[in-house]
């Protein structure tokens, strides 16, 4: 039975897609069966792994009930993936029925025995797609860049998680906050890290000890549609994501 992990932060550009891609590819390299589902209407994850966006079904078709989940899965070198669609951006108005928070959970139920991990790349907001992701998930990984605005969003995210736990999914847990695009040499980064630790501590959320350093390999790998390990296994970003995955597995996630 697959463990389901949301990679989520309502702030844009914090490394959700990069983390989903690296986590999926790294877990696959460790021998796990991994499916990633792109819930972000921007569709960057599908592009990052070279998935077909022209003819294949997307998670939008699945949530609409037009296509069975198993027929939307594409196999790529890095991971199995269900791509996103720009049509997801209208879903807030389109799906208004009772129970709409459970659509994704129901959609992945028939395929959960075929995978060890299902990773959900969420959009940069706390709307119905993110609520669907949290309702379907066992754990949430929260990528965060070390700037002062990112800190403000953590409490809001925490409140959403508490609401989902109360009404939709009591088993949900935040696996931890992962600092991304981190530069250990700058004082600001270190200060924000210290403040993030205080906030996380107050909310009883853990921070991952490992962080992801800033590296041009992130965008270079994406533009070549490769995962960071295949692009350059010796790069900072590949090494950091490798250590993060070890830490995540050691936590029992
Ligand atoms: N460790 C890193 N070092 C340098 N650049 C990075 C790093 N991680 C991600 N980036 C770059 O930052 C940009 C945003 O990353 P990404 O798309 O993963 O964020 P996101 O949170 O998914 O964004 P959105 O909310 O828009 O979906 C991308 O151009 C990516 O290449």
TrEMBL record:
Name assigned to this protein: Sporulation initiation inhibitor protein Soj
Gene3D superfamilies reported in the protein's UniProt record: P-loop containing nucleotide triphosphate hydrolases
Keywords of this entry: Hydrolase
Catalytic reaction equation(s): ATP + H2O = ADP + phosphate + H(+)
GO molecular function, one term: hydrolase activity
InterPro entries: AAA_dom, DNA_Partitioning_ATPase, P-loop_NTPase
Residue span(s) of domain AAA: 2-174
């Amino acid at each position: 039975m697959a463990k389901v992990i949301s990679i989520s932060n309502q702030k844009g550009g914090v490394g959700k897609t990069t983390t989903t891609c690296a986590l999926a590819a790294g877990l696959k390299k460790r021998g796990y069966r991994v499916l990633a589902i792109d819930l972000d209407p921007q569709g960057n994850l599908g592009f990052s792994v070279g998935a077909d966006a022209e003819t294949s079904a997307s998670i939008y078709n699945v949530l609409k009930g037009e296509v069975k989940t198993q027929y939307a899965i594409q196999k790529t070198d890095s991971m199995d993936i269900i791509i996103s669609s720009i049509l997801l951006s209208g879903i807030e108005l389109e799906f208004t029925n009772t129970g709409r928070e459970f659509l994704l959970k129901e959609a992945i139920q028939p395929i959960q025995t075929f995978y060890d991990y299902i990773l959900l790349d969420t959009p940069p907001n706390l709307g119905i797609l993110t609520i669907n992701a949290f309702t379907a998930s066992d754990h949430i990984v929260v990528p965060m860049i070390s700037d002062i605005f990112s800190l403000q969003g953590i409490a809001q995210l925490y409140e959403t998680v508490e609401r989902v736990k109360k009404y939709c999914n009591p088993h949900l847990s935040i696996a931890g906050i992962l600092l991304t695009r981190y530069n250990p040499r700058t004082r600001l980064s270190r200060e924000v890290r210290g403040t993030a630790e205080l906030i996380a501590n107050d909310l009883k959320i853990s921070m991952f000890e490992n962080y992801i350093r800033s590296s041009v390999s992130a965008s270079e790998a994406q533009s070549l549609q490769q995962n960071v390990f295949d692009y350059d296994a010796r790069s900072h970003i590949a090494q950091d994501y490798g250590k993060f995955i070890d830490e995540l597995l050691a936590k029992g996630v």
